[in-house]
Amino acid sequence: MELLFRFALIGMIGFAVDASSFMLIMQAMSAQTVVEINTARILAFIIAMLVTWLGNRYYTFSDAEKSSAINQLSKHCLAACGAFVLNFICFQLVLLTTGVLALAFLVGIGVGFICNFAMSKKRVFI
């Protein structure tokens, strides 16, 4: 249970980094076009992914063997991208079936969290 709590804490920090980075990059770029907005979104996602990898490597899974940082980071990136895809699919399905944006957001986040935790525990930080 402590592992799940630690993972959730790092996830919340990652979410805050993601959101604040996105807003800062948007302002710095004076982003207005779809390309600029998507560029800001991708950059913010990458920054947050690095923060969560560091947090999970040195805090959540601190007892796990420290394999090659590059190897572990690449596995973390794949897990995060996979979790994002599932998050987005669930978000769209719930939004299309219920029309409730907040519910769709929460379901997407929940599914992404579970997927990311499972992959991190079984494949990334081993």
TrEMBL record:
<comment type="similarity">
    <text>Belongs to the GtrA family.</text>
</comment>
<keyword id="KW-1133">Transmembrane helix</keyword>
<feature type="transmembrane region" description="Helical">
    <location>
        <begin position="7"/>
        <end position="26"/>
    </location>
</feature>
<dbReference type="Pfam" id="PF04138">
    <property type="entry name" value="GtrA_DPMS_TM"/>
</dbReference>
<feature type="transmembrane region" description="Helical">
    <location>
        <begin position="101"/>
        <end position="119"/>
    </location>
</feature>
<feature type="transmembrane region" description="Helical">
    <location>
        <begin position="38"/>
        <end position="56"/>
    </location>
</feature>
<protein>
    <recommendedName>
        <fullName>GtrA/DPMS transmembrane domain-containing protein</fullName>
    </recommendedName>
</protein>
<keyword id="KW-0472">Membrane</keyword>
<feature type="transmembrane region" description="Helical">
    <location>
        <begin position="77"/>
        <end position="95"/>
    </location>
</feature>
<dbReference type="InterPro" id="IPR051401">
    <property type="entry name" value="GtrA_CellWall_Glycosyl"/>
</dbReference>
<dbReference type="InterPro" id="IPR007267">
    <property type="entry name" value="GtrA_DPMS_TM"/>
</dbReference>
<feature type="domain" description="GtrA/DPMS transmembrane">
    <location>
        <begin position="6"/>
        <end position="125"/>
    </location>
</feature>
<keyword id="KW-0812">Transmembrane</keyword>
